Known about the structure:
Blueprint lengths: L8 E3 L2 E3 H13 L3 E3 L6 E4 L1 H9 L12 E2 L1
Amino acid sequence: MDKKLIPAKLCYSHIGGRLGALLTEHYIHSGWVKQVESNERLFYITPKGKKAFTEMGIDLSLIPEETIEL
């Protein structure tokens, strides 16, 4: 593998590995997603996140409205 490439891991239908962790951390620190207090693996997209993801061209209608597990 080219040493200039940074690996990204595909885990089922989402990005996993270090890239997935860094993206999740960025989204939390940006206020785009928040953790459900009763479960450390459950998150939801905030109104700020909905706006930001939509501006990036992400079609959020493909994500169910319920809480998502990361």
